[in-house]
Hints:
alpha+beta; 8 strands; eight-stranded mixed beta sheet
Amino acid sequence: MLDRIAEFFIFGLVPLVVGVLAVPEVTKAGEKTIAGEVTYRERVALPPDAVLSVEIADVSLADAPATVIAKRKIAPAGQVPIKFEIGFDPKAIKPRRTYALQARITVEDRLLFITDSRHQVDPLDGKPQTVVLKMAAS
């Protein structure tokens, strides 16, 4: 009987567990990603509890707030350049619309760095992006 239990663990349960652990993180079917990095020019280290927020936004309408398509928070952010990857539904991207990446670095809801100009992007082209932030006025 002990041999059967040992055989079950060795040839049944162990391969099952190893197989489950080896499977990459499940993503939504049809999901696309934008990857890149965020940096800034100032020679300042970020505090250890800094949080990076990056958004893909539809900025087509000049007189209306941007519509956020997808967002990602990275905490702790670490030091620049900070790498990011945002998954989004490609069906949310409409032709003849303008999209931009918006980013900010905060510490306990206090703004440290932010995008101060439009970083226009085609979410479907898959090119890596570099977003340069500007230090927020204190």
